[in-house]
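Issue 218. Parser rejects a valid record. Input:
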Amino acid sequence: MELAQSSYGQSSFGLGLPIREYLLVGLAAAVVTFLLVGLVRVLALRLGAVAWPRGRDVHVTPTPRWGGLAMFGGVLAGIGLAAQLPALRLAFDYSRDVQGVLLAAALLVAVGALDDRFELDAVTKAAGQVTAAGVLVLFGVQFSVFWIPWGGGGTGISGSILSLGPEQGVVLTVVLTVALVNAMNFVDGLDGLAAGIGLIAATATCAFAIGLVRENGNDAAAYPPALMASVLAGACLGFLPHNFNPARIFMGDSGSMLIGLMLAAATTSASGKIPITTTTDGTDVLALFAPLIVLAAVVFVPLLDLLMAVVRRTRAGMSPFSPDKMHLHHRLLEIGHSQRRAVLLIYLWAGILAFGAVALALIDDPAFVLWAVALGLGVAVLATAVPRARTARRAGSAGPPRPGAPPRATGRT
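Output the parser choked on:
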């Protein structure tokens, strides 16, 4: 593919990587989201889009929803600014990825906003999610290749590249998009949790996508994934101050599904921008399928939570969509973490996995990266286990109760 020509008559390679422009549009999305939250909060209170405390909820006071509307406004502002910048305007000329993402996001945010107000049934929400994923496919955002860990033959590669047909690519794209949308929806259970994970995931994906721009010789056709991720990171950053414990507003399904959709779109779009050569070695294979690694890593926590919830509810004879109070964040609260500490711990796990996967794809020393990730995971395990260890030490040092003494408080009802 030839290098795109800029408005100045020279190749985009000559302009250098547009990192400052990505930072600018991300900042614009953050500022607009931050400013819109107040207006959206008043609107949600007047129209009744309020989360009333339920038995499975952690919050105890009625809290307005629809934060996703402010986030979508920030995304629109960031994309609109990008369309006015000469360095990023090329992203709209050589691909329809951004336009497809905006249309799919608008559809899903509308469905989420209706659910935040009227509590739609699961079938209606699923139909909206599949339709939004279909819009992505119609605009060309879909997987075209996949890696399988066998069939390498004599090429020296552990595995082989499977070229997907149109139907296979559509199915894979829809399945991964719907899974990611629901995973982000499931994890939205503590103040600031979904927004923080969205910020971490989008930032990691943006770093990876900018690496792809560099690998493609700054070809403008590789701009859309980084643009999607940067504006999403900005929207999450702008919303987080309003949503961190104690939250003054919730993003609702309109926000959590927006995050899931845009993450899926950015990683799917990135998978089609990696240059494929006939002399692919082990490092090239890792780089070729890094979007799938990043996709699995950045959403490891919400996807694990989703899988555990489905298994748990199915074994109990319940619907996979039946609500309960046994998500990962609930378990962290049970072992003694405060809400803020539980959220920060999940940030730590998600950050280690996300940026570790990105580093493996972009850094030439995988041993160093793996050792750093292992060290980080060790720190995360120790930090997670601290409250349980403290509880055990206190129980052991207290000794058995004296005869006739009143029973000790356990903190459980």
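Fixed in the parser; the record now loads. The radius of gyration is 23 Å.
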